[in-house]
Amino acid sequence: MASTRKSRLRFSKLYTFGGIFKPSNAQRAEVSTSLGGPGFSRVVFCNQSEKHNLKPYKYSSNYVSTAKYNVITFFPKALFEQFRRVANLYFLLAAALSLTSVSPYSPYSLILPLVFVVGVSMGKEALEDWRRFLQDKEVNSRNVKVHMQDGKFETTAWKKLKVGDVVRVEKDNFFPADLVMLSSSYPDGICYVETMNLDGETNLKLKRSPERTVELDEETEFGNFQAQIKCEDPNPSLYTFVGNLEYNEEIMPLGPQQVLLRDSKLRNTPFVFGVVIFTGQETKVMQNATDPPSKRSRIEKRMDSIIYFLFTILVLISVVGSIAFGVTTKLSMPSWWYLRPDDTVSMYDPKNPGLAGLLHLITALILYGYLIPISLYVSIEIVKVLQAQFINNDLNMYHAETDTPARARTSNLNEELGQVDTILSDKTGTLTCNQMDFLKCSIAGVAYGRGITEVEMAAARRLGKDPRMLEESTIQEDESTGAGIEMMPMRQTGRPPVKGFNFKDERLLDGHWVHQPNPEVLQMFFRILGVCHTAIPEEDERTGMISYEAESPDEAAFVVAAREFGFEFVKRTQSSVILQEPGHNGQPIKREYKILNLLEFNSTRKRMSVVVKDEDNQIFLMCKGADSVIYERLGNGGKTYWNSTKEHLAKYGDAGLRTLALAFRRLDEAEYIEWNTVFVRAKTTIGSDRDELLEKASDMIEKDLFLVGATAVEDKLQIGVPECIDRLAQAGLKIWVLTGDKQETAINIGFACSLLRQGMRQIIVSLEIPEVIAAEEFGDKAQIAKVSRDSVRQQITSGLHQIELDHQEDAPLALIIDGKSLIYALEDDMKKDLLSLAVQCASVICCRVSPKQKAMITRLVKEGTGKLTLGIGDGANDVGMIQEADIGIGISGVEGQQAVMASDFSIAQFQFLERLLVVHGHWCYKRISLMICYFFYKNITFGLTLFYYEAYASFSGQVIYNDWYSSLFNVLFTSLPVIALGVFEQDVSSRVCLQFPALYQQGPKNVFFKWRRILGWMANGVYSSLISFFLVVGAFEIQAFRQDGKLASMEELGGAMYTCIVWVVNVQIALSISYFTIIQHAFIWGSILLWYLFLVIYGLINPLTSTTAYKILTEALSGSPLFWLMAVLVPVACVLPYMVYQAYLRMFAPQDHHLIQEIHHQEKHLRDPEMYRQEKLKSRQKTKIGLSARVEATMSMRRTPETEFYDQPHGTNDDHVALSNMREMESPLFDVQWES
């Protein structure tokens, strides 16, 4: 039985799928000798891990740690992080000085609050890192079977693995390290791998072992196994690998197909054997484990400036007080005999006033420290975490179909969501669904498929056609003229819907293709669809149906299309693909195509090819790729159908479809063997030039192709995209689209989602012009670059000149630029002109751009405009853009989770971006802005009373408040209300935010955090401090404090003044809040009540501890009517100017939210509809893009006599639908009749 299986395993001596025959001795000698050189020095002794215990072959252990700290480094590193904040550093200095005799406070009153604030932040860090540690511990403790000796495998923890160990990994388990696959449970040595944890891709990948190790599929066969691997050094590239395996005196090349990476999972395969090549931190996943870029919000950066400003004020008043104290000490101290100036300490020595003033400066720096809020940072952290929870739990951003909620992956940037100026968006999977449907095709010069795309429907609307007619008919080219548009009813085929296949054309379905002209070309077209791919078939054991795991939605659509046309892909082995296709008698038969070589697709090649041998021993090269790339490789006899195919491709592009061209060539045996020799040499090269050699080898065979046809798949717009773009535009946001699609497709998607519209003039910057094409024909790269650069500069300059001459406000411009042009436009001497042109255009669409160019454009907009940018995408190619933008949004799409993993926030659909920005962004921005302003207000109110009293006491350093009053001011008596403000405040409801999108512009214009507003709050704090101090002091010093005739002491004065300040700051926050909840009431009035309870409880403690607070309320203050009168009078006097100012604003200079609040709360839309109409008109920014702008432009054109085409009595149906949608967006709270 075993021998039978062994012979079956050796069915092929071909080095398949890597495209390799067994290398000859001559070829083996030609293997590159780059080993040992830079980047290619690793040597692995397979099954001999003991050799890796000593240098130079000693490598890192397999223990992995993602924790930021350990037991030794936690305190020094965490403390360093905390005291990088200037406020914490100041309070650390103050706490240290409190241990000296010059401190006005007891050490505990300064040290304990600092310990609390820093401790909370460090505790948060520790908790997060402890979770990482537990996660690491779980991973490092996972088990895997490792070969020990004599063919015996034992279970071992991952962390004990060494380079060279042979391991056995079972189904549905993760790979413990980077392995070279040796064999699997399948006879052909293949396995299926899920790489979601690495690149976010959910599709299964096919891996295969080297041909010579396939037979090692039993544990006992590894008893005498020894081999040597020479390969590249550890690096972060997930998709490349260069190495050789020396086994049984044979050298076999190793590539990415033979490597199983740590953290990927074995799927649909019972087991595999592999040898460890990289461990621990040297694995590719850990090499990629870099921290995301550090992003700080602009408000936080300005907050640092405010703290520096307050610190300057603190130093200034300290210096003033110290100078005054020095002068007083010199001039007045000698006459104060009761202070014994002849026997005093240095701080009060009239003989040395300079030293006295210097010592007083230290005292003052500590005394006035309450100008700087110690709890500000920790309060903001708490608020942002809670704000993030509201975003995470918003059901209006939950996508039930995929069970995906919105996620705030970082809470540091919540307020930035309300300040976005420019959105830079990917197209595929972001604006569109990334769920491809095979819709049309062109074969042998004939167009097939009568499906209608959303873009075609939008185009018909632009021509004034009723879109409802398109649901029952299709636009088909009049083949006789090539120009007319004929409406033809579609036949109902009765076929059930198939995911990925929306093709409707009875000429090709149900085997009717055999009756078409050139059936042999159609057959080859279908075979290319069924063979030229890397998809994996999966059969459902219950139903017997086959589904496909493909590396992209496009590829899955092609394989499904091949099946629906009768060429079903049913099985893949390591060396072949099996199709079930129609036989000569119409009955399905299985045909095997041996895969000799696979030339994989990448963004540089823009094509994929396979070399196959059919059952008749004919060798074919099958190729699919971008039409421009395929055209360059067509032979003289292969362009038979090019002209007609090119026309069809143009129409497919106009329809917003994604296209690929298909071609093939027949190879003779001798030509193939000669080419394969070159290919083997390139494959077995170990060095930096390997990719270049492989590309040259590919170019040798990918030539003289015969064009078969082209495919067209549709990537539909996501639900709600046009409406979302329209409302974002009304909120004043600019939207740029950055896509890798061709220009025609990008333009038509722009029309479909109303980024472009009829009448919008397009400035197209492209290198598809005669001058550049002529230069390319000569092949001189320097000349091509010069002509291209000059052309791009001229086109940009021309666009700027056109804008200067154009003074029509209602004639918007759109900039469309391709990736080739961006190569030169993003150069230092031209990028400013590009940006100047782009920001003056209503729409910007960049097509054919690379991932790097997306990031460069984002950086250009961010740095060039100085305004906040948001990048949004769903794929790995969007990661650079997402990380470069001020805010990165990842969409949980078909392309996996890599964009989400790199993002700051994630959503399931583009349509949720509106609510994330217009609602949560607006709220968070206003909450944080008001919260910080109020924080500084209350600290100035409190802190300056210390300065006034010191001046009142001849700058003696005397403190009016008990030490614990001061210490608990920020921590206990005023902290909870400001946190509630930051979490719950709403100037308007979420519904009103969406109905009045112009409110959003308060964020980009920074209305609530300008220096004028910040200084206004500070001035309010100065005023409140003056009133609180002088009103209380004036009331208490001119008359008896109590009925027994006693005057108030410093203790009573301090207690009364502190009580008034607690009332003032809490009443002020109550007046600042627009939206009250029971929590805010509890926190505000509870904080005041807590102060009284503290006075009672703390006053009962031994006077040695409570000092000046001993029974201060129960025996001194509570019996004084003046105390209670001041608790009412002072807050009223302090907040009165604020109330008058707010009343003035609302009456004579109202802001948008003031009017909306008044309308909403007093129902003035019923009593004063004209005011409501005026406010409604202001509620939307004047925009030149979006559905509303398109409808308004159409209506305007209809009113113009020259535009007779649009002069229809009732307008197109599309216009009325659009207007209807706009009306539906209006508030259901306001019953307003629209004018006809």
Explain how this protein is built.
This protein has 1236 residues and is an alpha+beta fold. 44% of the residues lie in helices and 16% in strands. It has a nine-stranded mixed sheet, with helices on both faces. Strands 17-16-28-27-26-25-24-23-22 form a nine-stranded antiparallel sheet, with helices on both faces. Strand 34 (887-891), helix 26 (898-901) and strand 35 (905-907) form a beta-alpha-beta unit. Helix 10 (376-392) runs antiparallel to helix 27, helix 15 (642-654) packs parallel to helix 19 and helix 21 (781-805) runs parallel beside helix 23. The longest helix is centred in the C-terminal third of the chain and has 41 residues, at 912-952.
Attribute tags:
1236 residues, alpha+beta, nine-stranded mixed β-sheet, 41 helices, 35 strands, 16% strand, globular, disordered N terminus, disordered C terminus, ATP-binding, membrane, metal-binding, transmembrane
